[in-house]
């Protein structure tokens, strides 16, 4: 049994630009937590190479609204360096490359950093990456969102 000191209170999803994958993951996780009546976990997102203040892609906004009834229209990107990453209890990365970079830049947080798929399916999962849909047709965004949703369904029972 976890005591409250070890309980996850703050989660951050990290992708490259904070306009697609991490935003979709943040929006979906917030909705899933709300649907379960969990209000004590805060969810954030950031981008490793994000320009702070960018809106989510039109495709990400449309897929989230049409397929999941999640509104990310007002989301504005934030660079990891401008975020509260050091305050997070769990940091979930879209890819293994992002994880490696974060572990290098924030070695003191390495025990809190995982890929989304690693945390969902375990360290032996073969494909650790959620591929970037940026620049691709909306169907690729739908596939990406579904991949994120499947992983989050596993993650939500662990936290």
Helix content: 25-40%
Work out the radius of gyration. 14 Å
Indicate the structural class: alpha/beta
**CATH C-level:** Alpha Beta
The CATH superfamily is identified as Response regulator
Question: Average pLDDT across residues?
Answer: 95
Number of domains: 1
Query: Biggest β-sheet: count, sense, barrel?
Result: 4 strands, parallel
Order of helices and strands, N to C? EHEHEHEHH
Number of H/I helices: 5
pLDDT < 50 stretches: none
CATH topology: Rossmann fold
Strand order in the sheet with the most strands: 2-1-3-4
Distance between the termini: 12 Å
CATH architecture: 3-Layer(aba) Sandwich
Beta-strand portion reads 5-15%
Shape: globular
Task: Give the beta-strand count.
Answer: 4
Account of the protein in words:
With 159 residues, the protein is an alpha/beta fold. The protein is built from five helices and four strands; from the N terminus they run βαβαβαβαα. It has one domain (10-158): 3-Layer(aba) Sandwich (Rossmann fold), CATH 3.40.50. Helices cover 40% and strands 12% of the residues. The chain has a four-stranded parallel sheet with strand order 2-1-3-4, with helices on both faces. α1 (21-35) packs parallel to α2 and α2 (58-68) packs across α5. The mean pLDDT is 95.
């Amino acid at each position: 049994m976890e005591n409250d000191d070890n309980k996850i209170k703050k989660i951050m999803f990290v992708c490259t630009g904070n306009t697609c994958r991490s935003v979709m993951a943040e929006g979906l996780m917030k909705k899933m937590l709300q649907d379960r009546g969990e209000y004590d976990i805060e969810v954030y997102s950031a981008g490793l190479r994000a320009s702070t203040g960018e809106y989510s892609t039109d495709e990400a906004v449309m897929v989230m609204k049409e397929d999941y009834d999640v509104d990310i229209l007002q989301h504005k990107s934030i660079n990891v360096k401008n975020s509260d990453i050091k305050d997070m209890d769990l940091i979930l990365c879209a890819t293994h490359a992002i994880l490696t970079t974060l572990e290098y830049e924030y070695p003191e947080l390495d025990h809190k950093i995982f890929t989304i798929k690693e945390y969902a399916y375990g360290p032996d999962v073969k494909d650790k990456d959620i591929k970037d849909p940026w620049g691709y047709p909306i169907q690729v965004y739908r596939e990406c969102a579904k991949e994120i949703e499947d992983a989050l369904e596993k993650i939500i029972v662990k936290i």
